[in-house]
Design brief:
Length: 126
């Protein structure tokens, strides 16, 4: 499936690593692409994760129970960038095993360059 990513190479590679780990249900790989503390904003709910142990590996089980099989970033656009921080607007779909769309949504990721690498620092989902 063709997607539309308008990102610098280093941030594109981070997005690819995130999706690969997420879709493989690779909890350690998912945790490794984040910077801590990591902030998740979903609607009016805010969660601050201070270390990888604060993430819940059961999230993949929950998502599978809804019919989710994998996610696709349909588009990803760099909307702001400084040397050590960027904001990326993403439209994504969550899909069933047969490829049909289970859910479509949008979010903004804040990515930062810390300790010699790019990582996700915050997610705000609509």
């Amino acid at each position: 499936m063709k997607t539309n990513w308008n990102l610098p190479e280093n941030i594109r590679k981070l997005g690819e690593a995130y999706l690969a780990a997420f879709n493989a249900r690779d909890f350690d790989g998912y945790a490794a692409v984040l910077h801590y503390p990591y902030v998740m904003i979903n609607g009016a709910e805010v969660a601050v994760i201070y270390e990888p142990d604060g993430l819940n590996p059961a999230m993949f089980d929950y998502m599978q129970s809804t019919g989710w099989d994998h996610s696709i970033w349909e588009s990803a656009d760099l909307i702001q960038k400084q040397p050590e921080k960027a904001h990326v607007a993403v439209s994504f779909t969550r899909r069933r095993k047969d490829g049909s769309v289970l859910e479509a949504s949008e979010c903004v990721y804040a990515v930062t360059f810390e300790n010699g690498r790019w990582g996700f620092k915050a997610t705000s989902m609509l």
